[in-house]
Amino acid sequence: MGCSCGKSTSRCILIIILMIGLMNIWYQCYDIRVKGLLFRLTNITERTLAANLSLYDTVTMEKNQKDIELTYANSTMKQRKVNEDVCKDRINTVAFLKVHKAGSSTVMNIFLRYGDSHRLNIALPRVPKPKEKSGNWNYLGVDTFLQKKRLIPIPQNESYSIICNHVVYSKDKFTEILGQDAVNIGIIRHPASHFLSGVYYWHVLDIIRKRIKGDNDNERMSKYLKHPDLLKRLMHNRMSFDFGLPVKYFENDTAIDEKLKSLDKEFSLIMLLEYFVESLVLMKRILCWNLKDILFIPINEYSKEKGNKIKLSPDDIRNLQKYNHADFRLYQYFEKKFMRQLNKTSHNFHEEVENFKIVQETVLVYCKNKTNDQFAEVLIIKETAWNNTFNITVKECKFMMEGELYLLWRLGKKAENKYHHRKK
């Protein structure tokens, strides 16, 4: 298209303005489509998704990378070099207390992946042999402290680096396995949501329905919480028990106070499920790990819990607080400590959290659709103020999405073969 200026100057200007306007409209529509592909995949049918996956390498990553760069551009942290932080050496000797029904399976996968990728000795449970009783074989201690006989043994001149399976916490037992310099990390959640999560997962509600009369589940639950001794005490201070508080001290405030003070000294971080991403970034800083090390895909999300129909009333909460007194004390204490830790963070912690969310979303989209032929074999995450450039492979996606028991079995077999080979 052309026009000779002079007498036609006004017409040329009008044409140019119209072209610019059309280009802006096209760009906005294009940008909306890209954002839809990125952040609204759950609302797109599989057929539509497959038709648009070819956009992934050329469009999706560019869009997310722009978001990352924008976060970086708005940061007062721009002058800080990549990975520069208050820590200098990464910490490889870590105990993660896997608390029941607190998002701990997802965090466990992070530690297993880290240990495996860095060729560390993980304190793994012995893999059951064929025809051998295998109930709770994945525990390092079934409702008790760590039992060395349950571990896959390692050569005498080597040491364990990571604990992350279910076990009741004991400072002495953890120190015996990992040594004095290990960093302890734990996780908890609000006692009300923790209680309901356990109620669904362990089918406690089915027991209550059979033994307590009521017009609906809410009424039955209210009756149970008023008189929990009517049944065997179910989901009774489970988090406190996992942290090593004996059952006989559940109602003893003096013993609870002493336990909380001990845990405060012995744990570098107790994560809150309600602040999961913030907890991971805080853990990353404490351990001097990289952003890639803390990536995750949610594991063990129980479908019945998502469809939770039980709503605890204020009276129910008060009764639950009496019933799970120790758990409420535990949560209140470490919620306050967690907030103090967040307030002490420097180097634009919240901007790092936002950056992590963007990268996490990108990896989640890639991994959950990794089987499509149009997806690249490697996802490249570019450098930002908070991470170096790194790749995510299909193999790493599969690791993050692998079922807990099969993953432990696979890593256990791998460890047995490795240690057997070293003995030769």
Task: Give a verbal description of the structure.
It is a single chain. Helix 1 packs across helix 3 (55-73) and helix 8 packs across helix 13 (314-323). It is globular and about 75 Å long. Strands 2-1-3-4 form a 4-stranded parallel beta sheet, with helices on both faces. Strands 5-6 form a two-stranded antiparallel sheet. The chain has 424 residues and is mainly alpha-helical. It is built from 17 helices and 6 strands. It has helices spanning 9-39, 46-52, 55-73, 104-117, 171-178, 191-201, 204-211, 217-226, 238-242, 253-266, 276-287, 303-306, 314-323, 325-344, 349-368, 394-401, 404-423, and strands at 94-96, 162-163, 183-188, 269-272, 378-381, 390-393. The longest helix is centred in the N-terminal third of the chain and has 31 residues, at 9-39.
| Helix content bin | 40-55%
Which structural class best describes the helix and strand composition?
A: mainly alpha
Give the beta-strand count: 6
Which blocks of ≥5 consecutive residues have pLDDT under 50? 1-5, 25-65, 67-85
**Could you give the order of the helices and strands?**
HHHEHEHEHHHHHEHHHHHEEHH
Topology at a glance:
Elements: H1 9-39, H2 46-52, H3 55-73, E1 94-96, H4 104-117, E2 162-163, H5 171-178, E3 183-188, H6 191-201, H7 204-211, H8 217-226, H9 238-242, H10 253-266, E4 269-272, H11 276-287, H12 303-306, H13 314-323, H14 325-344, H15 349-368, E5 378-381, E6 390-393, H16 394-401, H17 404-423
Parallel strand pairs: 1-2, 1-3, 3-4
Antiparallel strand pairs: 5-6
